[in-house]
Amino acid sequence: MSSSWGERFRISIFGGSHTEAIGVNIEGLPPGEPLDWEQLLAQMARRAPGQDPTSTTRKEADQPRVLCGLLDGVTTGAPLCAIIENTNQRSKDYSQLKTLPRPGHADYTAQVKYGGYQDVRGGGHFSGRLTAPLVFAGAVARQLLARRGVTVGAHVRKIAGYKGEDRPFDPVGLSPALLERLSGEYFPVIDPAVRQGMRGAIEEARMAQNSAGGLVECAILGLPAGMGDPMFGGAENRIASLVFGIPAVKGLSFGAGFRVAEMLGSENNDPFYMDEAGQIKTRTNHAGGILGGITSGMPLIFSAAFKPTPSISREQDTVDLQAGTNAKLRVTGRHDPCIVPRAAVALEAAACIAAVELLAQSGKL
Amino acid sequence: MSSSWGERFRISIFGGSHTEAIGVNIEGLPPGEPLDWEQLLAQMARRAPGQDPTSTTRKEADQPRVLCGLLDGVTTGAPLCAIIENTNQRSKDYSQLKTLPRPGHADYTAQVKYGGYQDVRGGGHFSGRLTAPLVFAGAVARQLLARRGVTVGAHVRKIAGYKGEDRPFDPVGLSPALLERLSGEYFPVIDPAVRQGMRGAIEEARMAQNSAGGLVECAILGLPAGMGDPMFGGAENRIASLVFGIPAVKGLSFGAGFRVAEMLGSENNDPFYMDEAGQIKTRTNHAGGILGGITSGMPLIFSAAFKPTPSISREQDTVDLQAGTNAKLRVTGRHDPCIVPRAAVALEAAACIAAVELLAQSGKL
Amino acid sequence: MSSSWGERFRISIFGGSHTEAIGVNIEGLPPGEPLDWEQLLAQMARRAPGQDPTSTTRKEADQPRVLCGLLDGVTTGAPLCAIIENTNQRSKDYSQLKTLPRPGHADYTAQVKYGGYQDVRGGGHFSGRLTAPLVFAGAVARQLLARRGVTVGAHVRKIAGYKGEDRPFDPVGLSPALLERLSGEYFPVIDPAVRQGMRGAIEEARMAQNSAGGLVECAILGLPAGMGDPMFGGAENRIASLVFGIPAVKGLSFGAGFRVAEMLGSENNDPFYMDEAGQIKTRTNHAGGILGGITSGMPLIFSAAFKPTPSISREQDTVDLQAGTNAKLRVTGRHDPCIVPRAAVALEAAACIAAVELLAQSGKL
Amino acid sequence: MSSSWGERFRISIFGGSHTEAIGVNIEGLPPGEPLDWEQLLAQMARRAPGQDPTSTTRKEADQPRVLCGLLDGVTTGAPLCAIIENTNQRSKDYSQLKTLPRPGHADYTAQVKYGGYQDVRGGGHFSGRLTAPLVFAGAVARQLLARRGVTVGAHVRKIAGYKGEDRPFDPVGLSPALLERLSGEYFPVIDPAVRQGMRGAIEEARMAQNSAGGLVECAILGLPAGMGDPMFGGAENRIASLVFGIPAVKGLSFGAGFRVAEMLGSENNDPFYMDEAGQIKTRTNHAGGILGGITSGMPLIFSAAFKPTPSISREQDTVDLQAGTNAKLRVTGRHDPCIVPRAAVALEAAACIAAVELLAQSGKL
Question: Which of A190, B90, B118, D159 has the fewest CB atoms below 10 angstroms from its CB?
């Protein structure tokens, strides 16, 4: 089912931008896991719009309500369903989308697939708003991980138009402390000094009635070696099938990523060694912590490319699906000029969910 | 299950490099599909080693035998299982792998996961040899697609060390004829003139006891608009969960891929227009034919980065898992210095399988 | 996932007897299906307690609220999630269940499985109350079926202690009109005259601080021949995997059911014939409309045996899980002396859901 | 997929009565499990035809060949695929089945579903011969179970026409020794004295050009309490979805089965008590070892009703699908007059497979 993911730790996301509520049903939670409500809200807040000067001015409460699966704040082992009421809906803004599909958006393909019955209001089930329940599920997963020594964090590596240095994670020396810091930030970056420059690039795009893409890198620390399965059950496959469900992702790579295409074996191979504690490690980590689909115990690192949000207010060419003619479109409504900082939160959530699934698949949950 | 893929058109791959046989069980084949045996063998031959001067000198017959699912060359609708006997096995070459894991290979992670019970001979279930049944299943899928107007082809875009121009597909004007040509080649490239240069780079790596990574681009033409599902059932998700099952893939991108991270909305958005025949198209195709996870009817294009094969014969650092010490390793045996040309065939196979699944999911098979 | 069912039409049930709300998420609904709200409520009312003189005196509003998936009463093709708030909770009644497990109930096995973290209030996720979202999903499915000429109905065949005649469906001549009548009744029986006798048997059990089991027969009319798949995807398998999810079901049979064990081939085989309209039918229908797992076009008929509800107020032997001793238990609280009439509604719902899945699997939805 | 079963321990069965080979691919086997080949063959022999005087005279070698997944007789953790060549095929016997469908068989429904492309030879993929790979997989599972203290056995309770006493398992006092004895017999019965009478009833059916149905009861001993999941993942659901995949099963019940419909709560409830060793047990076992879908630690017991094999040689009414007329049919070829003794072996196999899945689901494998 396309809005569900996972075999052992399964999330099912429902709702649309303007439905009464959105939410997520989580199956496969082990019993006896206390959930810290403040930490859940903190993660929800990071994703919520209006938190960062660069994001949209819409204000969404994003207050989750847990319907079941918790008793006195502790998981019961039964499905946990949480919903978020949609309170701030301006449906009129979107009335033309069925006729004039926005370039770069799912309007046209949804129209073909659903024959006009799809909910177009605010993008419907394709809306970036659906990352709210994803982030909720990720925040639940994160608490399970923390109890098992696993840390997850992401940072914005690039914003289109920002000319500063691209500073990736240190794939070998990456510390849990850095990930913990990043996972508390609204616009997570390794070097806080670049944040202002990135915000500047976003602001520039907004001023130009435009939007900006970007690159986010994410890491999982503390996963034991041996998680994941061969072939189609590899850590890469599982993460990919989840991450491409975040709107706007058009590329995903692990470790050295696309650079491997330009490397020789002697450069790319990560030599094993035994550290002083007798632990097996690799001196480099081009593999991004995954060999043959299975975790090596080194930092698991991946990067996702996010396209610029397609909703820009400058005039664009499109077609009139009713008239059957070419047409011009000017998108109105409030839209983020750059969803990348909030997408980083969604990417972390996906990483948390995938990590729990990997642990569960290996009987380590 | 990690060695199986697909919900409606399901492949289950079994075997290892040195088991008695390898094979694939295909479920979900519609009844009444004639399969052309020569075409199946032609695809198998493209992947088989020893076909191109740059590949390994091992000769594997790769002669598939269909056990069931076909009657007089036509599918019955029951599962089709095909096996390939492993005839040319030199098990002695691999005796040290359990003790001295090869850098960049699954030897170490498999050892951790399977506690030493894994079949290490030739890489066991992690061997690139397992792409043979994948290619068989892809060749079956390709014939279903051809009958429905869908064409699949891939080309080698980059080989590590090759300095020539990187020429991608024309994402808008791509023709079925080009894909058909490519899907018949042993070392598929858009411009045959570059093949020699790429072979030179591979030969150079071999001479240096090294190996070379590379980049392959793949396209699917003729998929109708409306295939794929939102969120985790998107065309990208499904393709990704399959493609990362091909050994050595470390990155995957759709359309403009990682370049979207550096683009503005006005650049990346593909404007819609209506062509003379009244068909809705886009003037550019940065989306790679997928919007919101659903096909737009434009060419579906993706690229996969393959790391250099980790088995190189120069000395490398590793650990001795039995002695618990650091160690040196010199990999012996016959290994491709570059698996990229053969990986292109596997990537096409994955594209064919994913395309059939997309059609089946949408009730179009 | 254990609280989800279906591959193409998937229901995920969440909640417990005393959680804030219970509900169901439905995935795989085709777009463009209008849902009649009154009909949905009518089915919910049939299952709700307090409707029949023989049922518990608890009053549950059972008012569903659709959070998403509908737009102006028509399905959008996105997941439809509906919840029912739990308003009438008396948690104190159940305080002893963790210590003194009720014989015949899941108290003990849940305690072992969930280590004491399970929600014991009112049976938690094991409560018969969870048939409310099942009935909701079934009522949705029923409307899809009606539009495709498929009718579903069930009747109470036996109540423990009732001595009257056991009158099953006519497996050949069964009419849609009868099923339609039954599917509107609170205590569905073929011959209304027996209802009073059955109620008497139930009342007798109640007076004796006891409970009564029963047998329900269910039929699906109008499913075309050819639905279902061989082996584990047969119509029987799919129905069984769903029906055993209804609490208290201990047996399930199709067509002549357990009587086939005492039949000879010449008796059991249903001879084919061609009727005047050229339709292929069978003169008898011991097969219950299923041959080789695939529907034959004859009425699909199955029966489910429901055990007496285990919550009886007379004293019973049990163990004290905390003290580690044998103990006596007297169950308090309000309990149905017989859930069979309401279970018939749940069984119909399961049949509706299974029928939609069968149609979807065969591309007929 | 309809010919596959299981989430954690997955079997995929392929082939047909007259294809080149049949087989099973087993995924999810833990690594490091030694498999005793003689024990595997012993189980295969129990199911093979021609072993008992009452079965068909066909002789099938049923010699399995393991293609992969084993190394020196020990599982590697990779998929284990085993095939059985079909050597003794007389295809001519079945030529008329496409035109004149056999009453009670899948000929007609398969014709509708597969549009005439199905393999009709010997019943194709619907053939009882497909229980051979099921029994192979079950025999593998049985060895895993034995190592974990779990025993499985079945016995023939009824044969149509046999008038002797119906003696079920003692649901409380059932011993592993009895199950072990039964699981080694060709025609397993609790009291060897009844075997001759049952054989007589079968012989009588054969003499009358007829066939006989029967009832088989199966038990699993040694499963710990706490296996299985609520709702649709219950032990009953899982077993049912597998057992209805054995040809001819028309009914399935657990514990007291359909008798619960005639019981009062005070009769049906199994009182808990603590035995001398401090173990929690029930004094009766009407629940068949399952409460709320979860094992209680008591013997898990179920019964399956098998219809008489539909292939009888006396003249029957059918239709001529080509001529579109009513017709007469006389089935030729060699057919068992009663498949029940061999079906008992298949039922045991299903129980073994389901038990391994239950353990795997609970992380106990």
Answer: B90
The count of other CB atoms within 10 Å of the CB of residue D35 is 18
Q: What number of residues does chain D have?
A: 365
Query: pLDDT digits over B231-266, tens only?
Result: 999 999 999 999 999 999 999 999 999 999 999 999
A78 and D363 within 8 Å at the Cβ level: the answer is no
Give A230's contacts in chain D (Cβ within 8 Å). 78
To the question of pTM greater than 0.95 for the whole model, the response is yes
The reply to whether residue B292 touches residue A110, judged by beta carbons under 8 angstroms, is: yes
Angle at D129 between CA D125 and CA D132, to 5 degrees: 115
Q: Looking at chain B, which residue has its C-alpha nearest residue A134?
A: B231
CA dist., res. A154 & res. A157, Å (int): 9
**Number of residues that this document lists for chain B:** 365
pLDDT value for C336: 87
At B177, list the tokens.
């004829």
CA distances from C26 to A328, C3, C63, C137, C364 (A): 38, 12, 17, 7, 18
| Residues shown for chain A | 365
Q: What mean pLDDT do residues C338-361 have?
A: 98
A9, A10, A81: best to mutate for the C interface, most C CBs within 10 A: A81
Show the DSSP H helices in B165-223 as ranges: 176-182, 192-207
A288–B250 CB contact, under 8 Å: yes
3-class DSSP state of C353: helix
Judge: D113–C260 Cβ closer than 8 Å, yes or no.
Answer: no
Instruction: Report pLDDT digits (tens) over C40-85.
Output: 999 999 999 877 666 655 555 689 999 999 999 999 999 999 999 9
d(C-alpha C290, C-alpha C301), whole Å? 9
Residue D156 has pLDDT above 70, yes or no: yes
SS3 D345: helix
DSSP assignment, residue D34? B
Nearest to C3 among A14, A79, A114 (CB): A79
For residues B107 and B110, give the distance between their C-alpha atoms in angstroms, rounded to a whole number: 5
Q: ipTM strictly over 0.85?
A: yes
Chain D residues with CB within 8 Å of chain A CB: 7, 78, 230, 363
Contacts of A311 (CB under 8 A, 6+ apart): A102, A105, A211, A331, A333, A335, B265
Residue D78 contacts residue B126 (beta carbons within 8 Å):
no
